[in-house]
Design a protein that fits this description.
Strands 1-2-3-5-4 form a 5-stranded antiparallel beta sheet, with helices on one face. Strands 6-10-7 form a 3-stranded mixed beta sheet. The chain is of the alpha+beta class. Strand 4 and strand 5 form a beta hairpin. The protein is 46% helix and 14% strand.
Length: 307
């Protein structure tokens, strides 16, 4: 890793200003800081289950989209990516704050990013980005059941998933769903917010990408699940989509797509765990059934927006 970083810095006329600092190692990623005379760079390595992340991140950067990280280099075979510093993490910046108003800016930003990427779905799928489009979810869900030896009650959700997917029109086209659009993965760069960590992204219905976001807003700011403030923020997110349909129709579509995001969360964890060692996979084996529990409760009416 160090040799590749040194070669990359040399090729880019970048001079190191200190030793590489290993920040953290988790079963699904490793992160290191690379100080240079032109600012810090960050190195990330991911496991085979997230092999598409470096390529997807580079593709987003090459589109010169606002609010995605600037990529210095990637190594596809080794699943490495080197990026420029994106600024302080939003979670750290807001530590101790009681003012959530920045989400009135961030949610429309996410929507506009998805709108822009809607034209690139075929390209992003070709890069290996997982296909979580609504029409693919029932088969993917049914594949999970026997492999995870899940309770029989989950089997009844398969036709409901298909029904929800079928009722979603083409009004809102598929796009990238980040799946973890929260204050841990948003940084405040010099020119605006930057969205990092695209390893759990997929191509799907855009509105399915708000599950972790809404749950995070409940946890961080104490909003009532399904309450007026969370519904207001849902509508703030939906405002840019008004170029495609009036708000009441968008709200109806959101109610169908949002639960499908829980299927995507289960599928994302399934992909991560599939390539981990036995001990690590066992430690996080609760994640797939836990997300399906949330799905079951949502479709049963005992869970709601942000639960």
């Amino acid at each position: 890793m160090a040799g590749w970083i040194e070669d990359t810095l040399r090729a880019g006329d970048l001079e190191p200003s200190g030793p590489i600092e290993h920040l953290r190692t988790r079963p699904w990623s490793a992160l290191a800081r690379v100080p240079t005379t032109q600012g810090d760079l960050f190195f990330k390595a991911v496991p085979p289950g997230l092999a598409f992340e470096p390529t997807l991140t580079l593709a987003l950067a090459r589109k010169q989209l606002d609010h995605v990280p600037e990529v210095v280099a990637i190594d596809c075979d080794r699943r490495w990516v080197l990026m420029r510093d994106a600024g302080p993490q939003l979670r750290e910046t807001l530590a101790g704050s009681d003012d959530p108003r920045i989400w009135d800016e961030l949610l429309p930003l996410y929507a506009r990013l998805q709108l822009e990427l809607g034209e690139s779905v075929k390209e992003l799928l070709a890069l290996g980005t997982p296909d979580d489009r609504p029409q693919a979810l029932r088969a993917a869900f049914e594949d999970l059941l026997p492999r995870w030896r899940l309770e029989s009650r989950f089997a009844a959700l398969a036709p409901v998933i298909e029904d929800y997917a079928g009722r979603l029109s083409d009004t809102v086209p598929a796009s990238v769903i980040h799946e973890e659009f929260n204050d841990n993965n948003i940084h405040l760069g010099a020119e605006g917010p930057v969205v990092l960590d695209w390893g759990e992204a997929a191509v799907g219905h855009p509105f399915a990408g708000l599950v972790v976001t809404m749950r995070g807003l409940v946890d961080r700011w104490g909003f009532e699940p399904g309450g007026p403030e969370l519904r207001r923020l849902r509508d703030v997110y939906l405002e840019p989509w008004a170029v495609l349909a009036p708000l009441p129709e968008l709200i109806e579509l959101f109610a169908l797509a949002y639960p499908l995001g829980m299927v995507s969360r289960a599928l994302a964890w399934d992909r991560i765990l599939a390539t981990l060692g036995e001990a690590d996979a066992a430690e996080f084996s609760h994640t797939v059934p836990a997300w399906l529990d949330v799905l079951h409760a949502t479709m049963a009416g005992t869970a709601t927006l942000g639960t």
